Amino acid sequence: MVLIGAHVRGDDPVAAAAAVGADSVQLFLADPQGWKKPVPREDAESLVASGLGLYAHAPYLVNVASTNNRIRIPSRKMIEQHAAAAAALGARGLVVHGGHVGDGDDIAVGVDNWRKTFARAEFPVRILVENTAGGENACARTLDRLALLWDAIGEYDVGLCLDTCHAWAAGEDLETVVERVRAITGRVDLVHANGSRDPHGSSRDRHASFAGGQIPPELIAHVVREAACDVVVETPAEGQADDIAFLRAALAD
Predict the structure, then answer these.
(1) Which listed CATH number (1.10.1200.10, 1.10.150.120, 3.20.20.150, 3.40.710.10) goes with 4-226+237-252?
(2) β-strand 190-193 against 230-233: which pairing, if any?
(3) What does the pLDDT look like over 190-238, one tens digit per residue?
(4) Cβ contacts of residue 75 below 8 Å, gap of 6+?
(5) Cα–Cα distance, 138 to 217 (Å, whole number)
(6) Is 177 helix (H, G, I), strand (E, B) or coil?
């Protein structure tokens, strides 16, 4: 059964899920803008007992593709720490952005840094690499880059998170994106169903509610149908309930 979930604040995810009619939640396990290690949650028992599906999202600073040792090495450690914390909560996966190399750096080095991440460690939950919206130096923005990345890491137990806003911003055709991604990776494990505040191909990562964004809502639903996997809505909180209800109705048709 496909779970339709919401990205929520971490203070009371069970109540947040109930408020928007979500079957699952995605949350950060530590400051999304910091390097701090996750600490055990006081509500861990009730969160597990709730029966909600759970996905964790790694902090935004994590970039294992980086050629800078001061970023890459702490990023690997962060993935290990967050994967362990996610596993303790019974999470279905840990979402990690595809990352990027610095200006003038060879993208192949960043791709190989991803390979080394999996070659050097095993993780207790599946790592879900997420496509990104912009940046010429990104490892998972275009499908050509995604193919290079998957050639390097596809042999490991790694999954894919497909974000509709990011794919739209990168100029991808959402009518066919699931089919084309699967031709590269063989899988889509999670969809981030998001509208976009900006035009197609803008390279801007600014989420919008389905009704208030520039991606036709039915096109977002089409991606979710084609992927046939769990979905997390990361739209603004005031519109999440409506967006989840829209998807639930669209999938029931």
Answers:
(1) 3.20.20.150
(2) parallel
(3) 999 999 999 999 999 999 999 999 999 999 999 999 999 999 999 999 9
(4) 61, 62, 63, 64, 66, 99
(5) 27
(6) helix
Task: Give ∠ CA 152-147-3 in degrees, rounded to 5.
Answer: 95
61 closest CA partner among 92, 30, 87: 30
Phi, psi (deg, nearest 5) at residue 161: -110, 120
**Size (the chain), residues:** 253
Taking CA atoms, 53 is separated from 1, 27, 43, 50, 230, in Å, by 11, 11, 15, 9, 9
DSSP annotation string for 145-171: HHHHHHHHHTTSSEEEEEEHHHHHHTT
- Rounded to whole angstroms, how far apart are CA atoms 164 and 167? 5
The 3-state DSSP composition of the chain as helix, strand, coil percent (nearest 5) reads 40, 15, 45
Whole-model pTM over 0.85: yes
